[in-house]
Specification:
The complex is a heterodimer. By secondary structure, chain A is an alpha+beta fold. Chain A is built from six helices and three strands, in the order H-E-E-E-H-H-H-H-H. Chain A has a three-stranded antiparallel sheet. Chain A is globular, with a radius of gyration of 14 Å. Chain B is an alpha/beta fold. In chain B, strand 5, helix 6 and strand 6 form a beta-alpha-beta unit. Chain B is globular. Classes of the chains: A alpha+beta, B alpha/beta. At the A-B interface, helix 1, strand 2, strand 3 and helix 2 of A face helix 9 and helix 14 of B.
Chain lengths: 145, 397
């Protein structure tokens, strides 16, 4: 089997699928051309993620990574969510195949983008160095041809 | 659903009873080395000759024009390299092919390009076909080889091989065809089709894996690829896989004998599936609807990604395949779908169903019932689909 049982579980029964209509922050990363887009919706109260939902266009590991990452930040303070790494997501899924690691990177980036959106919308000052521009996925893919 | 519906026969097939039965005798009874001069060896040699005659008859060529190999990839490699080397001897270092060949052909050509050959990749039309006129127009005085696949492995389109062969013959250029998906499924006649070299693989027509053959017209020199012995008239060293070869011959004889009957059954199932699946909004059939293999269905569904579709169908007992990037292990979707001019985002959402004669009407009904549910679910969680529906993103199909 290509994927771990955990990946298959989160892929076939994804947690936190959906949208939040009155989200406080929305982050979207990826590129349809490359076959992966992740969109994360956050509901934030007192700097804590009280609810999180996702929509994902992508392969099994992209959907599983979104599911796992949202589970890992739900109920967490923003400071904790910002510490979430792609490695931690992949490890929580009992590993991803090497060529699928970029799915966990997308999950980390989508969360970061959603938090940044929250800060921007609410005029909250933040350390810009914490939010590097997610790399241009398309360019990244092309260079690997 | 407990039962598994296997609809990935372009990847590989289950072995036929005839093939299994044919192989049985070669492990303990007829175990000789066909190169040995003693009785045990010579019995094996007789069986090898008989298998060769059967394969030759199915392709309408002479037995000494058939060389047994390890499969389609090896046959492709040897045919193309052989023709290239022969051409180079006469200063001809130009090859004509298409953009959507199997990688066994494409990667060999890429290597030859690095070695100083020039390759013209003909553009495939949106329906997955090329024309003989386009081949003719591309032929130059220094063209060493034309290699065009008989039928495409992903979208099943059948090229006008006979006409392509004719223009090559007229120009005196050797013509190779990768017929791995065609042999045993549609009539292939190397004489009538003007083919100089052909590759085939046993496991695509219910034979064993790891065995195949190449046809090389008698008047054409074939360069040895594997050195080390006089097997296959010195063109392919290594003790013959007699069990595999006998299994292949039996499978091929059976496939050719039932060709019309099977094709009629498969074509009906194929067209039923295509009709049923095209009811899904924003879906398309890839490849020509008529000039295609009897058992091939290849569709794109907008707004979803093929690998997740595949995995969810597998959960429902349907084994299919996809040209999505994720299933190929690369980041680009199928080069075949891209060659048709499909945008990346559409090509990612592809599904291939390849049928065999054991698939039933009931299975087709089940597939037609289940695929739309999975597509709808994946669209419901897809931000791309949301944007398509809201008009933020334009529908491409």
């Amino acid at each position: 089997m290509l994927y771990s049982e955990k990946v298959m579980d989160h892929f076939t029964n994804p947690r936190n699928v959906g949208k939040i209509d009155d989200a406080d922050g929305i982050g979207e990363v990826g590129n349809a051309k490359c076959g992966d887009i992740m969109k994360i919706y956050l509901k934030i109260k007192d700097d804590v993620i009280v609810d999180v939902k996702f929509n994902t266009f992508g392969c099994g590991s992209a959907i599983a990574s979104s599911s796992m990452a949202t589970e890992m930040i739900k109920g967490q303070p923003l400071s904790k969510a910002l510490e979430l790494t792609n490695k931690a997501v992949a490890e929580a899924l009992d590993g991803l195949p090497a060529h699928k690691m970029h799915c966990s990177v997308l999950a980390e980036e989508a969360i970061r983008a959603a938090i940044k959106d929250y800060y921007d919308r609410h005029g909250i000052a933040y350390d810009k160095s914490q939010f590097p521009d997610p790399h241009d996925e398309e360019e990244e893919h092309r260079s690997e041809d | 659903m407990e039962k598994i519906i296997y609809a990935d026969n372009a990847a590989t097939t289950a072995m036929s009873d005839a093939a299994i039965e044919a192989m049985g005798g070669y492990f303990k009874k007829i175990y000789g080395n066909p190169s040995s001069l003693h009785t045990v060896g010579q019995i094996a040699k007789e069986h090898l000759d008989a298998a060769r005659a059967k394969v030759a008859q199915c392709l309408n060529c002479e037995p000494n024009e058939i060389y047994f190999t390890s499969g389609g990839s090896e046959s492709d490699n040897q045919c193309i390299r052989s023709a290239a080397l022969q051409g180079a001897k006469k200063g001809k270092k130009h090859i004509i092919s298409t953009a959507f060949e199997h990688h066994a052909v494409l990667h060999t050509l890429k290597k030859l390009e690095k070695e100083g050959f020039e390759v013209t990749y003909l553009d495939v039309h949106g329906n997955g076909l090329i024309t003989a006129e386009e081949v003719k127009a591309a032929i130059r005085p220094d063209t060493a080889l034309v290699t065009v696949m008989y039928a495409n492995n992903e979208i099943g389109t059948i090229q006008p091989v006979r006409e392509i062969g004719k223009v090559c013959r007229e120009a005196g250029v050797p013509f190779h065809t990768d017929a791995v998906q065609a042999v045993g499924h549609i009539p292939v006649d190397v004489r009538a089709d003007n083919i100089d070299m052909l590759s085939l693989s046993a496991h695509k027509f219910h034979g064993p894996k790891g065995v195949g053959a190449l046809y090389c017209r008698r008047s054409l020199p074939l360069v040895t690829f594997i050195e080390g012995g006089a097997q296959e008239r010195g063109k392919r060293a290594g003790t013959e896989n007699l069990a595999g070869i006998a299994g292949m011959a039996a499978a091929l004889v059976e496939a050719c004998a039932n060709l019309n009957k099977n094709a009629a059954h498969l074509t009906a199932l194929r067209d039923k599936l295509i009709k049923g699946l095209l009811k899904i909004p924003h879906s398309r059939l890839n490849g020509d609807p008529k000039n295609r293999l009897p058992g091939n269905v290849n569709m794109c569904f907008e707004g979803i990604e093929g690998e997740s579709l595949l995995l969810l169908l597998d959960q429902k007992g349907i084994c299919a395949s996809s040209g999505s990037a994720c299933t190929s292990g690369s980041l680009d979707p199928s080069h075949v779908l891209l060659a048709l001019g499909l945008p990346h985002e559409v090509a990612h959402g592809s599904l291939r169903l390849s049928l065999s004669e054991t698939n039933t009407e009931e299975e087709a009904d089940y597939i037609i019932a289940e695929v739309p549910k999975v597509v709808e679910y994946l669209r419901s969680i897809s931000p791309v689909w949301e944007e398509l529906e809201k008009g933020i993103r334009k529908h491409l199909i």
